[in-house]
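Appendix B, record 7
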Amino acid sequence: MNPEILSRVLLQGGTVIDLQARTVRRADVLVAGGRIEKVEGSIEEVGGAEVIDCKGKHIAPGFMDMHCHLREPGREDEETIASGTAAALAGGFTRVCPMPNTDPAIDTEAQVRFETRRAEDANCARVHPVGCCTKGRQGKELAEIGAMVSAGAVAFSDDGSAIADAQVMRRVLEYCKAFDVPVISHCEVKELVEGIANEGRMSTKLGLKSAPDVAESAQAARDILLAEFTGARLHIAHVSAKATVDLIRWAKERGVQVTAETCPHYFTLTEDALAGFDANYKVNPPLRTEADRRAVIAGLADGTIDAIATDHAPHLKGEKEAEFDAAPPGIIGFETAFSLGYEQLVLTKALSLTDYIARLATAPRRILNLPAASTAVGSEAELVVLDLKAEWTYAPDRVLSLSRNSPFIGRTMRGRVAAVLLGDRLFRF
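Structure tokens (predicted):
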């Protein structure tokens, strides 16, 4: 992806979303030298500035995806840091956090530095690595947490695998507390899981091996109690079940330092999507019931669930075309996330536009101790231009990810990212 390098940019005629002031107002934005120089009701054209017509569009802080998979190192045939960060930008994500379940796993300082160097070479979305909690994600011996923090890791997780040993999880929480970084928990009691379809009506009807929602919520309950005991910061990944939402709400009421995320597929789809045995609907945790979907939306609406992440998980076509039980779980999600949330949350009035953008932009940075994205004067330009009136079709030939495993390919959606301004680099879509 080749951006335009511009010393001055005037975003003219747009509606600016200021998440810090909680305002939405018509204004022009002048960016000079990669920083926001002016935000005013009307700015006359500035000599040497590239003028971007934003009439009818919104200007917001860049989004941050705190949970994705870029597959490098190990599976560069599915995705690379370069291709993944390009796809992220197309979805409005100016920063991403790749999970450490690569091959080899990201469990040393050197591997964290490898990811950040590759991201610098790619020069697309910025990368903030998540390091492993345990060596090789084996759930036994703590990884080099302190050294990885020094190298730039912003959180720790054995994502893809739960830490089964409660004593190990306790030590991970205590060690991460010393560095004031969150532990991101993949909540799954493996002994309860036989397959990756929600245990219930559809799995029985289709004869699929299943995973009950209690496999997620039981692990979440244990980790919440350990977080309360240790005083550490816990983040629950990819929340899919009503019981898990209820537990997080209860924990927050008790003052536990717990935060949570969900993904667009959990507030957009249900287990009914599995009826055609299409493995592009196979995700982990699995798609659940309509009651769970509504509970996830309610959790977003009342702040129980803090953030929206994609869990972008690329897989090759041949892998996904295997028998359903044998196909790997996961879907790509960068390029459809904003539109799905806009349709399912904003247009249905579950969230205001400002609150929705905050779930994508503000909450992830807060959870990960990163500076807030801003549209205020003096801030670095990290902006997305949103066309909320656009209707567009997610066609295979427009996918920037190396993989195409999305159940939303061919779907026409409302609202899209029209451009991203990151420092002095302008990306148009």
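Remarks on this record: The chain is about 30% helix and 20% strand. The chain has a mean pLDDT of 97.
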